[in-house]
Amino acid sequence: MKQFTIFACFALFSLAANAQTAPSDTAKLNALARQAQRYFNNNQVDSLYSLMGATFKQQLSADKMREVTAQLTGQLGKWTGLEPREVQNGIGRYKATFAMAPLDFYLSRDKEGKIETFLFKPYKE
Fold it and tell me: Region 8-29: what's the mean pLDDT?
């Protein structure tokens, strides 16, 4: 139940996303995902939070982001792998492998190129 609470804190889905995603958009999502992973692992939560768009920031404060990332790291360990799965409606799905377990990781960008969706869920093949 505690893990679900952590996942729910990151649950922010895009309200308006493109129906098709161009290859360059996919490359931008992948680069942003790698950058988020790097900041996450280096405990640079302020830098990670700076990647977030206005809509995300309205839903989750910087202090809450620090709290949630610390809990997630404490429960699952280091984020060791990131494998792109698919992109649908502008939202990229990745397999995020942590030291203790894999998770599904969802990421999308807003019109300014900032993170709009940043969501971890239990992993499904």
Answer: 55
